[in-house]
TrEMBL record:
EC number: 3.2.1.8
Record's protein name: Endo-1,4-beta-xylanase Z
UniProt-listed Pfam families: Esterase
Key words, A-Z: Glycosidase, Hydrolase
GO molecular function, one term: endo-1,4-beta-xylanase activity
Domain of life: Bacteria
UniProt entry tagged with the keyword Cell cycle: no
The keyword Hydrolase belongs to this UniProt entry's keyword annotation: yes
PANTHER family recorded: ENTEROCHELIN ESTERASE-RELATED (PTHR48098), IRON(III) ENTEROBACTIN ESTERASE (PTHR48098:SF3)
């Protein structure tokens, strides 16, 4: 068999209406090989949806895992973001952060579950993000624990505000975080400043562990770029779908 079956995919574009955000949000829904609406599937929600498909190659990765590794087929929902307001939506101090989180939990999830056969249980949902996308993903799990308990973090932009939020919890043993950080991410330039994300991730790992969530934590040589994250995404997805 040639490799063409890895690249075949069915992606449905949806415009999810949002009273909270005041406008609809574009999402991409990738259906797995052999999709059957009479079955039910786990679901992977991705921040930076366009980037996860274009640079993370998550659809191809998912096909490879299904065909080669026996992974359970899952539906992928990539949530697009306007890069000009990304920080405002994804950063805990952002003026649109609370509204975006409400949209995600109260409007997006019901919309998807009303149209696709995804399993309506926290254990069957994975929320994934890179950098600030990982930050908002973790906060979603903390604030909506009835909806999300599985987080994939690609070089999360975890600053003190996130650790302050973790400190409010007493027991995070219910939370599963698969956390990746590159050892070359010690001076990452962002629009909020330059940060040592390696140190920030180490500190956040300890903060989570102190509350009973022991992240599956991986450090390896890598920079704050999709070229690094793309290569690591397969095993992180396999952790939940294997």
């Amino acid at each position: 068999m040639d490799d063409q079956h890895y690249y075949k995919r069915t992606i449905v574009k949806e415009a999810v209406p949002s009273a909270v955000l005041g406008s609809s949000r574009s999402v991409r829904v990738c259906l797995p090989p052999g999709y059957n609406e009479l079955l039910s599937y786990p679901v992977v929600y991705c921040q930076d949806g366009e980037d996860f498909f274009n640079f993370g190659r998550i659809a191809t990765t998912m096909n490879r895992l299904i065909f080669d590794e026996g992974a359970e087929p899952a539906i992928i929902v990539g949530v697009d973001v306007d890069k000009t307001i990304r920080t405002s939506e994804y950063a805990p101090e952002g003026e649109r952060f609370a509204a975006y989180c409400r949209f995600f939990a109260e409007e997006l999830v019901p919309y998807i579950e009303g149209r696709y056969p995804v399993r309506p249980a926290a254990a069957e949902r994975i929320v994934a993000g890179d950098s600030l996308g990982a930050t908002v993903s973790l906060h979603l799990a903390l604030d909506y624990r009835d909806l999300f308990c599985n987080v994939i973090s690609l070089s999360g932009a975890f600053l003190q505000s996130t650790r302050d939020r973790i400190e409010q919890e007493t027991d995070l043993s219910w939370l599963t975080v698969v956390q990746l950080i590159g050892t070359d991410e010690t001076e990452v330039n962002t629009e909020r400043g330059t940060f040592d994300f390696l140190a920030e991730n180490r500190a956040t790992r300890l903060a989570l562990a102190a509350k009973g969530c022991c992240p599956e934590y991986t450090e390896k040589p890598g920079k704050h770029i999709w070229g690094f994250w793309q290569k690591e995404l397969p095993w992180m997805l396999q952790r939940f779908l294997g």
